[in-house]
TrEMBL record:
One of its GO terms (biological process) is bile acid metabolic process. The lineage of its organism: Bacteria, Bacillati, Bacillota, Bacilli, Lactobacillales. This is Glucose 1-dehydrogenase. The gene is gdh. Its EC number is 1.1.1.47. It comes from the Bacteria. Keywords: Oxidoreductase. The keyword Oxidoreductase applies. GO terms for molecular function: glucose 1-dehydrogenase [NAD(P)+] activity. Belongs to the short-chain dehydrogenases/reductases (SDR) family.
């Protein structure tokens, strides 16, 4: 636990399920105020708020589309109106779908890029403006992926969005470092969330993915949330512009494990 986080306010996008919910719960356990953004799953967001409040934090569910400028502004306004400020902004919302690139529709390309990359830009823009205008020490955490580094056939739009997030994070980290604003990425590997629950429920597919992970297991959303809490805390006060991979070693060229190669 990080005692300095108590009473701080965070916005977590895509907080109604998966990694976003785990981060919202962890922030609740840190006794923080959390704006839990959801797109359509109000029940999931309300359930997260309940858990945050049971843990001693305060929560507020807010519907918004992260791919729209008005959506990001709505989240900022909700945080300020309800909790008086924003200290930490987590751009977590993301979508994916499989398609061979030569069959990928422009509609799917736009949906993935708009949510995963433009959404990070729009959330960062309102948060940065608020931090700069108020001379506030700010903290932005973007949810990238191992696929900011590892190519992923069938998911070119997803990999392009996460590769974009990597350089967007590094650039904004550099641009705002002098203003005491830190910007970091988390790069999850294979994590058991609704985005891939069906896949990991099948023992054959679970084993196929676990075989690509040196630690030989799929990760839990709480393990990603622990990284978010650390990046939000002062324990990481000299860390900016990095991607913290939470991937059981997936980015370490697992094919070389056991001295092969
Ligand atoms: P999920 O599907 O469980 O949750 C995604 C959340 O984003 C949902 O709450 C959804 O409603 C929300 N969302 C989607 N479009 C939105 C929009 N336009 N506006 C607001 N919210 C929107 O997925 P998961 O696994 O929790 O993923 C969270 C993040 O972690 C994503 O950015 C994903 O790319 C990333 N990630 C996940 C990995 C995994 O193995 N689960 C691995 C690497 C990265």
């Amino acid at each position: 636990m990080y005692t300095e986080l108590a009473g701080k306010t965070a916005v977590v996008t895509g907080g109604s399920k998966g990694i976003g919910t785990a981060i919202a719960k962890r922030f609740g356990a840190e006794k923080m105020n959390v704006v839990v953004n959801y797109f359509s799953d109000s029940k999931g967001a309300e359930a997260a708020v309940k858990i945050i409040e049971e843990a001693g934090g305060k929560g507020l569910a807010v519907q918004a589309n992260v791919g729209e400028e008005a959506g990001a502004q709505k989240l900022l306004d909700a945080a300020i109106n309800t909790f008086g400020s924003v200290d930490i902004w987590v751009n977590n919302a993301g979508v994916e779908n499989r398609s061979a690139t030569h069959e990928l529709s422009l509609e799917d390309w736009n949906r993935v890029i708009t949510t995963n990359l433009t959404g990070v830009f729009l959330g960062s823009k309102v948060a940065l403006k608020y931090f700069v205008d108020n001379g506030k020490k700010g903290n932005i955490i973007n949810m990238s992926s191992v696929h900011e580094q590892i190519p992923w056939p069938g998911f070119a739009h997803y990999a392009a969005s996460k590769g974009g997030v990597k350089l967007f994070t590094e650039t904004t980290a550099m641009e705002y470092a002098k203003q005491n604003i830190r910007v970091n990425n988390i790069g999850p590997g294979a994590i058991n969330t609704p985005i891939n629950a069906k896949k990991f429920a099948d023992p054959v597919q679970y084993e196929e993915t676990a075989g690509m992970v040196p630690m030989h297991r799929i990760g839990d959303p709480e393990e990603v949330a622990a990284a978010a809490a650390w990046l939000a805390s002062d324990e990481s006060s000299y860390v900016t512009g990095v991607t913290l991979f939470v991937d059981g070693g997936m980015t370490l060229y697992p094919a070389f494990q056991d001295g092969k190669g």
